[in-house]
Structure formats: structure tokens, C-alpha cells
Specification:
There is one protein chain. The protein is 73% helix and 0% strand. The chain is mostly helical. It is flat, with a radius of gyration of 39 Å.
């Protein structure tokens, strides 16, 4: 039976440890500012006094500028908090990779061999695809030639039959017989 990995005891004992890098701190500040701007913008849009109804009792349309501003603020809010989540994930992945104790020279060599293998397989796949494509093009070209030849023969027979019916004569051969001397 495979051995199960024990949970990280330090994580359980000390809680979640977040190593705040410059990028994470900056993204968090932008996200908090975007949240504040969204709150203020939505309050402004909701409390905006709309003009009185028109002559037919129909209310006027909402101001496009306010709706556009609210849309932009919402997009900024979502993107900034998404950036914070991505930075947290990135930092956690880097922390775990750093904790593995892998030598960078070994890692580079292993990655280099993996990339070489990937390039080799990709080149083989391209060669196989190219050969299949060449074969398919050759087949299609042959089929097209045969179809054109058949269409030409049938069209010639139709023309000859129509001409024969019009003249009441038989179809003449294109090649003339050499007179006997």
C-alpha cells in the first residue's frame, strides 16, 4: 500500500502563513482601493436624483455616464481581486517549490531533457502530419482529374447526341480515315 503523506504540522499548528511580497502587497492595495471606489460609485448611482417624469408620464432614461462608470469600477474590482488571488497562488507554489530542496542545476537539466523530448515528439508529429497531408492532396488531385475527365466525356456525348438529333446524321469520328491509294 502506498504511503500517505502526512499533513504539514507547522501549517496546522501556526495557522496559514502568507509571505507577503511586494507584488502581493501592491495588488492588495489596488484591490482595496477598487472596492472603496465601487462602494462609493454604487452609492452615488443609487442616490442620484433623477429628473421628473416627462410630459407623457414616462421617466427619462438613466444617465449613460453613471452606468458606464459603474461598469468600469466593477471590472476594476473583479480584476484587482483576481490579481490578489493569483499572487497568493503564485507565492504558495513558489514556497512549496523552494521547500522541496531541489538543486537548480538538476532542475534545469531535467527541464532541458524534457523540452528536448517534447521538441523531438513535436517534430515527429509534424512529419507524420505532413506525410498524411501530402497523401491526401495526391488522392484528391487524382479524384479531381478523374471527375473532370468523366465530366468531359459525358458532356461530349451529350453534345454529340444533341447534334445528331438536330441533323439526323451520325456522329463523325474526329480522326479521318486515310484514303487507300
Amino acid at each position: 500500500m502506498a504511503e500517505r503523506k502526512q499533513p504539514d504540522r507547522d501549517l496546522l499548528r501556526n495557522g496559514i502563513h502568507v509571505q507577503a511580497g511586494k507584488l502581493l502587497v501592491g495588488a492588495t492595495i489596488v484591490a482595496i482601493a477598487a472596492t472603496g471606489a465601487l462602494i462609493i460609485g454604487s452609492i452615488t448611482v443609487m442616490t442620484d436624483a433623477s429628473p421628473p417624469p416627462g410630459p407623457n408620464g414616462v421617466p427619462p432614461p438613466p444617465k449613460i455616464e453613471l452606468i458606464g462608470t459603474l461598469t468600469v469600477l466593477t471590472g476594476l474590482f473583479v480584476l484587482s481581486w483576481l490579481a490578489v488571488v493569483i499572487m497568493l497562488c503564485r507565492d504558495e507554489i513558489l514556497r512549496r517549490i523552494g521547500g522541496m530542496g531541489i538543486d537548480s542545476a538538476e532542475t534545469e537539466q531535467a527541464l532541458g531533457s524534457l523540452f528536448d523530448e517534447m521538441r523531438r515528439r513535436t517534430a515527429e508529429d509534424r512529419r507524420a502530419d505532413l506525410a498524411a497531408l501530402e497523401e491526401r492532396i495526391a488522392d484528391l488531385t487524382g479524384e479531381y482529374g478523374e471527375q473532370r475527365e468523366t465530366d468531359g466525356y459525358i458532356n461530349g456525348m451529350r453534345i454529340a447526341a444533341a447534334a445528331a438529333e438536330d441533323r439526323g446524321a451520325q456522329v463523325r469520328s474526329i480522326r479521318r480515315a486515310i484514303p487507300n491509294q
